[in-house]
Amino acid sequence: MPNRVYDTRFLVEALYSQDPEFQRKANAEKRNREKYVSAVALHELYRLTLSREGRETAKLRVALLQKSFKVVSVDEKVAQVSAELRHKYRLSMGDSMIAATAAILNAVVVTDDSHFKLIKEIHTIWV
Length: 127
Prior knowledge:
The radius of gyration is 14 Å and the shape is globular. The chain has a single domain (about 5-115), classed as Rossmann fold. Helix 3 (about 40-55) packs antiparallel against helix 4. The protein has helices spanning about 10-15, 20-30, 40-55, 55-70, 75-90, 95-105, 115, and strands at about 5, 35-40, 70, 110, 125. It contains seven helices and five strands. The protein is an alpha/beta fold.
């Protein structure tokens, strides 16, 4: 079973979706596998939570996420692969860094963001 890198869109849906079927599938998706999240997705989730729910909730949410997921920092290798993908596919910096993380880890990106489907160097799934 391949490792997973979770995009910000998955994390947001898993937190805010009111759809019980999605919640069930999201919880099942996260069981029994190596779960990775880019530090970029942490940044995006923190920023969103900060604007919606305030600083204390944002801090708590990120702390809990760090206990459940392995956080992958942006290092030189991620930066270089990200720049190549960003140039080749005209991606945002955030998407290119998440895609680079998945490419380096040989992992599947869990997302419904159509930008990721264009990237030949990675695979994507949605729950």
